[in-house]
Design a protein that fits this description.
With 250 residues, the protein is mainly beta. The protein has a single domain (25-249), classed as Porin (Beta Barrel). The protein has one helix and eight strands. Strand 2 (66-87) and strand 3 form a beta hairpin. The protein is elongated.
Length: 250
C-alpha cells in the first residue's frame, strides 16, 4: 500500500513537467512568410467571349415564345496589375481594368399568344468601362505552406462607363446614351497557389462594397436626365469573380 501511494505521488509531481509543451493543431505552421518584404509583383488577366444567337448556327433558344432569333454577343476584358510588398505578406496594389461589351439583336419574334405577337429588329447595346483601383492586400499561408495561401484585398476604385442602347430604322439610329461615374470601397477575399517559384494563379470574389454613382442619360440627343445613388452590399458576388496570374521578383 505504501509503495502504491509513493508511485501515485511521483506521477502527480511529474505531470507539470510533461505538460509544458504547447498544444497546437498545426495551423500556425513553420513558415509564416508567404511572400517576403521588398518583393515586386505584376500580372494580367484577360478575357474574350463571342456567342452567336440563331436557329441556323450558334446557340438556339428552345422556346415556343421566341423564334427567328438572329444576333450576337461579344465581350473583351483586360486588367493589368502591380504589387509592391512593403512588409512580409503585405503589399500595396494598383490595378487598371478595361472592358467592352456588344450585343446585337438583329431579329427576334415574340409569340405570347395566338393573337399577340411582337417582332423586334435592329436592337443594339454597346458598353465600354474603365476603372482604376489602389489598395492593400494581406496574404496568409495555408497551414504554413509556401505554395497555397489566401488573401484579403481592400481597394478604393474609381470608374467611368459609357453605354448606348439604340435601334436602327431607315438607316437612322434612335436610342439612349448613358455615362456613369462611380467611386467604390471594396473588400475581396481570394486564394492563390504557386505553380513555379515566381509564378502563381489566383481567384478572388467580391464580398463587400460601398459604391457612389453619378449617372447622366441623353435620349435621342435631345432629352437629358441625371441622378446619383449610394449603396452598399455584403454578399458573395458571383459576377465579380476574377481569375488572374502573377509573376513575382524576390
Amino acid at each position: 500500500m505504501r509503495r502504491l501511494l509513493i508511485l501515485l505521488l511521483a506521477a502527480c509531481l511529474a505531470l507539470p513537467g510533461q505538460a509544458q509543451e504547447k498544444f497546437t493543431r498545426g495551423f500556425a505552421g513553420k513558415n509564416k512568410i508567404f511572400i517576403p518584404k521588398g518583393s515586386f509583383g505584376g500580372g494580367i488577366s484577360a478575357s474574350w467571349r463571342k456567342f452567336n444567337l440563331g436557329d441556323s448556327e450558334g446557340y438556339t433558344v428552345l422556346s415556343k415564345y421566341i423564334g427567328d432569333l438572329q444576333g450576337g454577343y461579344r465581350t473583351i476584358g483586360v486588367s493589368p496589375s502591380f504589387e509592391y510588398f512593403w512588409a512580409n505578406n503585405v503589399s500595396v496594389v494598383a490595378r487598371f481594368e478595361y472592358s467592352w461589351l456588344g450585343v446585337d439583336l438583329n431579329n427576334a419574334s415574340l409569340h405570347l399568344s395566338d393573337d399577340l405577337g411582337l417582332d423586334i429588329t435592329g436592337q443594339h447595346y454597346k458598353r465600354q468601362a474603365y476603372s482604376l483601383a489602389a489598395g492593400v492586400r494581406y496574404y496568409v499561408p495555408f497551414m504554413g505552406s509556401r505554395i497555397f495561401g489566401w488573401f484579403v484585398e481592400g481597394t478604393l476604385n474609381g470608374g467611368f462607363t459609357q453605354s448606348m442602347l439604340y435601334e436602327t430604322e431607315d438607316d437612322m439610329k434612335h436610342g439612349t446614351y448613358n455615362t456613369n461615374w462611380k467611386l467604390a470601397l471594396r473588400m475581396d477575399p481570394g486564394i492563390c497557389f504557386f505553380v513555379h517559384e515566381n509564378f502563381d494563379f489566383e481567384v478572388s470574389v467580391g464580398l463587400l462594397d460601398l459604391t457612389w454613382k453619378i449617372m447622366k442619360q441623353t435620349e435621342n440627343q435631345v432629352k437629358t436626365s441625371s441622378g446619383n445613388s449610394l449603396g452598399t452590399g455584403l454578399q458573395i458576388d458571383l459576377l465579380a469573380i476574377r481569375f488572374g496570374a502573377h509573376f513575382y521578383i524576390w
